[in-house]
Design brief:
four-stranded antiparallel sheet, about 50% helix, about 300 residues, NADH Oxidase, globular, alpha+beta, binds flavin mononucleotide
Length: about 300
């Protein structure tokens, strides 16, 4: 196919995708994909027994969050939040193992129940928590944000498991819708696996020898969402956390470069899922390769953020 025909095809494709009807259809498909793996459908199919503890921990954070918000209200009053209280209690009843009961999400939700019950009977007026100020200086944070770069060549220096854990551990420290904290990171520093993973991504074409000491997959548990309007939320929630990981990696001298999964073909994604054992209800949001940089990258031109400030 010559260049002109290719350009014409791309233009046609762009037209179709930009067409509002096609876009709406695509959005609906994404929504359908999410909804078929979401809580509502699982419940409909009465497959609750198949829900693992990770799911119930998620529901405890979600429902516990509703209860928690009520307890933090300045105008907290007794008798409110009964529905949320019931939902948290029900979710808690699904966690019975000793290990599950020790899980931080479970302990946190159980504490919310205790507080709620306590506040129904005494004169206390809900939770009053002090605002915690950060010790990080504005300039330091700005420096980390602005010096972070996506580099495409790395030193032949391995990354140890402790460092990978440090990077992954901040994924769920970003704001998440209803405090779901849906993230899960699949990671490898095995050179063969890294090479296999990167060759599946067309986005990795510009890397020197496609060598990288580390490969990460950032995923979202789609089961925790159920409303049609929430179809994009798993991606929003995890994407916010990915920036945490990228910045923390940067403070450790590691550059993470994101690889878009949009360029993954169906078969490539299947292979990737098989390699890591990723269940289908975990949506791959984005992947990343990383390492200690061998060279930097020029700062891409930054357009000024458009801000319309109403007075
Ligand atoms: C969602 C997403 C997907 C990306 N995919 C790729 C990719 O497939 N290949 C690549 O080389 N870079 C990828 N990048 C990195 C961008 O090219 C890079 O962030 C951009 O050029 C700006 O450069 P900077 O990160 O150094 O500021 C991706 C970035 C994002 C946010």
């Amino acid at each position: 196919m010559n260049r002109r025909s290719k350009e014409l095809l791309w233009a046609l494709y762009g037209r179709l995708v930009m067409n509002s009807w096609t876009r709406r259809l695509l959005e609906r498909c994404s929504y359908l994909k999410m909804i078929t793996q979401s809580e509502a459908i699982i419940a409909l199919r009465k497959r609750e027994d198949k829900l693992d503890e990770f799911y119930w921990r998620g529901k405890l954070r979600h429902y516990g969050h509703a209860l928690d918000k009520g307890l933090h209200r300045g105008d907290f009053s007794r008798g409110r939040g009964k529905r949320a209280y019931g939902l948290v209690k029900d979710a808690l009843s699904h966690v019975s193992s000793k290990e599950g009961r020790r899980d931080p999400s479970v302990v946190w939700a159980a504490r919310r129940i205790e507080q709620y019950e306590d506040f129904q009977t005494n004169e206390s007026a809900g939770i009053v928590a002090a605002y915690i100020k950060t010790t990080c200086r504005h300039d330091d944070l700005l420096d980390a944000i602005r010096t972070r770069r996506s580099v495409r060549q790395y030193l032949d220096r391995p990354i140890d498991d402790e460092t990978i854990k440090k990077i992954a551990s901040v994924l769920d420290w970003s704001p998440t819708s209803c405090n779901r904290q849906p993230g899960r990171v699949y990671a490898t520093s095995n050179p063969d696996l890294v090479r296999k993973c990167t060759t599946l991504h067309r986005g990795a074409a510009c890397f020197t020898n496609i060598y990288a000491p580390m490969f990460l997959l950032f995923c979202a548990d789609a089961r925790l969402y159920r409303m049609p309007v929430e179809w994009a939320m798993p991606y929003v929630d995890v994407a916010l956390g990915v920036q945490n990981c990228v910045l923390v990696a940067h403070t450790l001298g590691i550059s993470l470069t994101l690889l878009t999964c949009a360029t993954l073909g169906k078969r490539d994604e299947r292979n990737l899922r098989k390699m890591f054992g990723i269940p289908k209800y975990f949506h791959i949001v984005v992947s990343a390769i990383g390492g200690y940089p061998n060279a930097g990258a020029e700062v891409p031109v930054r357009k000024n953020t458009e801000l319309f400030l109403m007075k």
